[in-house]
Amino acid sequence: MSHTIDVEGDLVTRVEGHGSIVVNAEDGELDTCEWQVVESPRYFESMLVGRSFEESHHVTSRICAICSVSHTIASLQATEAALGVSVSEQDRRLRKLALYGETLQSHVLHLGYLALPDLVGEKSVLPLADTHEDELETVIDLHRLGNELTEVVTGRSVHAQRLVPGGISQLPEESELQALLDRLVNSWDAVAELADLLAVLADELPAFERETEYISLTHPEEYAFAEGTIYSSDVGEIPVSDYRDVANEYVVEHSTAKFVRHERESYMVGALARFNNNADQLAPRATEIADRFGLDAPVHNPYLNNVAQLVEVAHLLGESVRLIEALLDDGLTPQSNYHVPEIDPTAGQGIGAIEVPRGVLFHEYAYDDTGEVTEANCVIPTNQNHGNIQRDMETLVPTIVDHPEDEIKHSLEMLVRAYDPCISCSTHYLDVEFAGGEG
Amino acid sequence: MTADRAIVALGNPYRRDDGIGPALVDRLREEGLPSVDCLDLGDAGFDLVHVVADYDAVVIVDAVDFGGDPGEIVVFDPADPATAPDRRGTHGTDPFELLDVATRLSDSTTPIRVVGVQPAETGYGDELSPPVAESLSAGCRTLSETVRSL
Fold first, then answer.
1. Taking the alpha carbons of B3, B7, B11, B15 in that order, is the dihedral positive or negative?
2. What is the side-by-side strand order in the sheet with A18-26?
3. Which end of chain A has fewer beta carbons closer than 10 Å to its terminal beta carbon, N or C?
4. Is B91 on the interface with A (CB under 8 A)?
5. CA-based nearest residue in chain A for residue B93
6. Which whole number is the average pLDDT over A350-370?
7. What is the pLDDT of residues A275-285, one digit of tens each?
């Protein structure tokens, strides 16, 4: 593949690609320890330039299939902020529901499909179809539930069609919402089964700790996902308008992906960062699961991001129930199908900031007075975590450098996967290369 | 879900010929195949697990680099080791592994076929290359025939 670095740095979005761990040690002395991300630029920001405000979110939904609704919503927020478009409370609730659905399916997918094989000592999910059939069926059922949440609101489980600038082009039927509510309420046993499984395997998670800066959104009234202000565990609240001051991107020699830092050499985003910053706002059942695992903020073990995802699965399920009940209680305001809110574009600039499965996501667009994008910037969670993965490795490896090579490989692969990086199918792309010497 | 058979597109329309699957499914939707749902999963390969559980027969269409001429079409059974391993789709998520998981879990006997189209360009852009665009009609015919044959 082509490895291209955009040294100007403003127009590159990287969310997929290949990551490699390189460790070089001799006689117990560590020479090289690098998290190498060898991605090619994806040019989505460039593709946005010249596009109409009516299509920006469709383009960015293709940045990622696992979190396509997330990119759609962040994109819509940026567009609406730029064009001064408001969205009704009802439609904001529905978008939030779609985001919860996508985050639910993404977390379940990661826990069940990527993390679980690590914990049971398998290389992939395939053998689990024989050894953990019931558990895997639970994972698939919860994944389907997340998809259904998204599909009912957006018309599709991936690459949403009904979310448009200013609102939603077609509302779900109240009967669909009621059916979803029933499904959600009946899914607590599945969450409990997943928690039981992880509880049995939790001892396999390495007891490694490294304190870092944790960055997420925060909101005074809820555990922030769909809206909020930036929050740093080091310095507190930061306006979203200052997001570029938070996500300071820089280039390292061993990676084509830019690394990011704020107050320290690196920071962490994602479920554990959200938990550390906002744990007090979790739904009661989510708090119960956190307590069961002894998860007490702040947590400094990055491997426990897996557990934080499980906690968030319970939170998302509970909050989805609450949201649907509120929507049904209020009743949906009727509108025609193929509804397109009237928007008279004016030149402007706007930022979208939401929490997505892997952390805080920023989209920023500038539009001209015809409603065409003149500039775009997307800061993806996975890129914000690369620097922290590197620092974790640098701290962890010297403590295990005398362990067998396979054990080091396994610990480091688990570490990277704990961050749930958006490198499609990490099981296959993540290669650990021992450059020589002994482990 | 309104039918008992599904044609499932994988691919990203902003990666040129990788969008051949979604383009074919768009066309077939307009034609309206009886008892067939036309689904565009984009790059969401894991959703194949649900599709295999939901339908009696599944045809997957994707850009597949099998060393053919651009636009050339191949049909194969992903469970057939004699043909499948060298004909992987262009996506990182391994759909064959996912299909294995799905069939093992459900003891499914759902017949599955892959219709692969040899890409010429999978760089950035939203237009198919000329030879792949010319294969659209043949691709639609192949998909219709394949889904009817299962």
1. negative
2. A29-38, A18-26, A431-437
3. N
4. yes
5. A425
6. 96
7. 999 999 999 99
